[in-house]
Amino acid sequence: MVQRYGYDFRDYSMTSLKRRVHLAMQKEQGVHTISAYQDRILHDPEAMVRFLDVVSVDVTAMFREPAFYKAFRDKVVPALQELPLIRIWHAGCATGEEAYSMAIVLHEEGLLEKARLYATDINQHLLEQGKGRIFAIRQMKDYTANYQKAGGKSDFSNYYTAGHDEVILRASLGRNIVWAEHNLVSDSSFNEFHVVLCRNVMIYFNRKLQGRVHRLIYDSLPVGGVLGLGHGESLQLTPYESCYEVVDRTTKLFRKIR
After folding, report:
1. What stretches of 27-156 show up as alpha helix (H) in DSSP?
2. pTM for the full model?
3. What distance in Å separates the CA atoms of residue 1 and residue 7, rounded to the nearest whole number?
4. CATH of the domain at 206
5. pLDDT by 10s per residue, the chain, length 258
6. What domain range is 7 assigned to?
7. Does 111 share its domain with 142?
8. Domain presence at residue 252
9. Of 9, 18, 148, 248, most Cβ neighbours within 10 A?
């Protein structure tokens, strides 16, 4: 699979990966063994696309873990206000709900026009969904509650137009988002960012791959840059623990100091 498509899953968490592989295999007609499934993927690029849709981490939501966004407003935004241009990287963005959430925060803080948000993922299909700005209307109740808990300063409904069973987010929220395919397993740093958010992604990697990603993020941040991790992730027991100071311990916000 690495030689055929360039995707390397060998350093993913085996427990999670096995579960997702079996789930993907069950969705393929006429495939009953791992070897048969492997053969299909290697000879059918569309099967690889379907496999990637299942194996890719796609759990996301608008203002997921609202306390994170509240802490970001209170403890990170003041420093961003001093910058002439803001670059924020959402690594492993899936369908982009958290990138759009950040766009809303920056808009409400008067920073969106001077910001560039880079939303990257291994899965091009998920990125295309994110670009479309279309989400299920049934999600809006939960998203509204998250937005309010995150310190939202408006009515969440101001940020989308509702149809029958879908909503489309305001075009202005996506104007400053750059969508790009990027593989944390194999790709290098591609810019210097004031903020890197890699939240609830590394929990699916083994320790070796987590170390690689931490190095990649470290190389992507200047001194003073901010790192945001997920609630199940940590800098502890990594070579970079002493390179950051805590901005907010509860929501896993850190600032690079060396």
Report:
1. 34-43, 45-55, 66-75, 77-80, 97-108, 124-132, 140-149
2. 0.88
3. 6
4. 3.40.50.150
5. 566 767 777 778 778 778 878 888 888 888 888 888 888 988 888 888 888 877 776 679 999 999 999 999 999 999 999 999 999 999 999 999 999 999 999 999 999 999 999 999 999 999 999 999 999 999 999 999 999 999 999 999 999 999 989 999 999 999 999 999 999 999 999 999 999 999 999 998 999 999 999 999 999 999 999 999 999 999 998 999 999 999 999 999 999 999
6. 2-55
7. yes
8. yes
9. 9
